[in-house]
Design goal:
globular; 4-stranded mixed beta sheet; D-Maltodextrin-Binding Protein, domain 2; single chain; 2 domains; alpha/beta
């Protein structure tokens, strides 16, 4: 096995294969299955952690579209708030242990899906749905690979977030005659000039542990390049490699430019610092754009700008939210109808402009997206795709938890050797 499961996942996996047989006997037609589920009062329960600005609006738009197409199917929005998905994952684990899976649930493509629920035998393959809907050439092959295991496809991507974005306050940069940095050397030159003016160069809000890991993974990508970055998560490249040490040293140096109250702020609070001009730059995924535009009413490329994180031009750190078909649900045909809408051009274009993400499909309508969305859609088609560690795509949950703990200790103590030793020890569980 590739990992030792984290606590919440281990709890869910303890059920064994009890759910596996529950759906195998369902051989009725689609109409009969639909009628049966409605007679039994079976709702289509959509489980997620989308309760914040933008994301909740996007989910509601997607549900509205589905209900227009299938008015006879009752939908329940079973979103769980808080903790950047941590709370929702705990509830999901408890439900899966109790043989009570939701009809479909949000899960990050990559290791979180494949080494978690698929490896545990909890998901039904969706190859037939992909063939029926003609999706095999509508999603990038690298993305389909992220939701596949052992030749089967297990979920449908609804969106793409880019993780390697450096956001910056346009006025602060203009007032100080600065250009957004393209390399790490340029970043430190800019940071020194800002610091001399009494402006916090780099915002961080690591009250929730994943935020500092998000910064670290971007430094890794910018230092190692896409291929070597990927090799870290398969065990082909050691954390004792000199390139990793170089990345850690760069990360350590960056931490010398962050706001002092970083540990008491979440990612939105850190975004606020940049919006107000109290900090100049911020490395975070493009849900920040949704927050800037929807919550703070800022204007793209007027109030704030964006460039790839230094040294990551031509690279794309992928975070993708997906939905699949759990084994044992009583309304699998209804679930597949929802997945069909979710994976359609119409569905993705209803959801993503509100969420702040871009569609996972490569044939979506660019005219529905703002300037940032259009550029990101184009980059997604041409850039080298790299899976996010902090957001569950690159490595198993148990390993991610250990990295989060190690990163947060490092942010405080800045002990390079101890940090690397801890990462190398944790990586022993990764498949070689």
């Amino acid at each position: 096995m590739r990992k030792k499961a984290s606590a919440w996942l281990a709890l869910a996996l303890g059920v064994g294969m009890a759910l596996s047989g529950c759906s195998s006997s369902n051989s009725s037609s689609s109409d009969d299955a639909k009628q049966g589920s409605q007679k039994a009062g079976e709702k289509l329960e959509i489980f997620s952690w989308w309760t914040g600005a933008g994301e909740e609006d996007g989910l509601k738009a997607l549900i509205k579209l589905f209900q227009e197409k299938y008015p006879d199917i009752e939908v329940e929005n079973a979103a769980v708030a808080g903790g950047a998905g941590t709370n929702a994952k705990a509830v999901l684990a408890s439900r899966m242990q109790g043989n009570d899976p939701p009809s479909t649930f949000q899960v990050h493509g990559g290791a979180e899906l494949n080494e978690g629920w698929v490896a545990a035998g909890k998901m039904e393959p969706l190859n037939d749905l992909y063939e029926k809907e003609g999706w095999m050439d509508k999603f990038p092959k690298a993305l389909i690979d992220m939701v596949s295991k052992d030749g089967n496809i297990y979920s449908v991507p609804v969106n793409i977030h880019r993780g390697n974005v450096l956001w910056y306050n346009k006025k602060v940069f203009a007032d100080n005659g600065l250009q957004p940095p393209k390399t790490f050397d340029e970043f430190f030159q800019v940071a020194d000039k800002l610091k001399a003016k009494g402006i916090t160069p780099l915002a961080l809000g690591d009250k929730e542990p994943w935020a500092a890991t998000h910064l670290f993974e971007n430094v890794l990508l910018g230092t190692l390049g896409t291929e070597n970055y990927k090799k870290l998560w398969t065990g082909e490249l050691s954390f004792n490699d000199p390139q990793v040490k170089q990345a850690v040293e760069t990360f350590k140096k960056m931490l010398g430019y962050i706001n002092e109250d970083h540990s008491s702020r979440n990612w939105q609070d850190a975004s606020q610092l940049v919006a107000e001009g109290k900090a100049a730059m911020y490395v975070m995924g493009d849900w920040v754009k949704g927050y800037f535009v929807n919550d703070l009413k800022l204007k793209v490329n007027q109030d704030f700008g964006y460039v790839p994180v230094p040294n990551t031009e031509g690279k794309f750190m992928v975070i993708t939210d997906t939905f699949g078909l759990p084994k044992g649900v009583k309304n699998p045909d209804d679930v597949k109808k929802f997945l069909s809408v979710l994976g359609s051009v119409e569905g993705q274009d209803a959801f993503n402009p509100l969420k702040g993400s871009i569609p996972a499909r490569i044939d979506a309508d660019p005219s529905k997206y703002d300037e940032y969305g259009k550029q990101t859609m184009q980059d997604f088609k041409t850039a080298e795709l790299a899976p996010s560690l902090a957001h569950g795509s690159a490595a198993p949950e148990g390993f991610v938890t250990k990295v989060n703990q190690a990163v947060n200790i490092f942010v405080t103590q800045k002990d390079v050797k101890t940090f690397i030793d801890t990462l190398a020890s944790a990586a022993a569980e990764l498949k070689k």
